[in-house]
What we know:
2 strands
Amino acid sequence: MGSKSETVIPLFGILDVTGEVIMMWVILAVAAVLSILATRNMKERPGKFQNMIETGIEALDNFFSGIIGKKHSRKYFFFLGSLFIFIIFANYSGLIPGVGLTKYLKAPTSSLSTTLGLGVASFLFLQIAGLAHGAKHYFKRFVSPMFFMLPLLVLDEFIKPASLALRLFGNVFGEETVTHELYSLLPIGVPVIMMVLSLLFCAIQAVVFTMLVSIYLEEGLE
């Protein structure tokens, strides 16, 4: 838990596969299977599984609508919803027994490389969404209210993904490290309490990350 990433499958020393990458593949496979099962035989009167999935999607849509409005929520849900689902799955994967104890399976968000990747993806999404909304509006916001604000506003745009990545990594890494150390000191009782609290912390981190991306998106579209 919280240890340095180790190479599991070496690929020319450039694209080495680590335990975090393997877990990402597992998460993507699980998400793909759930999506197929939920949509392959949709009914007007949904069963329990379809109803559960629809309830979750509706809750996410309402969450994003409260920040960026219904119209933009529906338009950008493909990214925001996918981001939330991946992060919460990645966070909870660290609670699976055995994950983090070997180099073969590690929670993706416990690695700074993963959270930086999410930060960069969010940065690119925000720039593309801003430009698509209107190039004139996109560039104008960097010189408003005064032209001399340009360097600061450009710098702020690059700081946003870094802060997102460091915040998510720091919280997940810290939570895993504390749980691991408590297990070493008091193997009975206290680690169980930390794992229960982790169920809440993992969800909060996914909410905070996507909420901030939504707020940045709203600022770029207003």
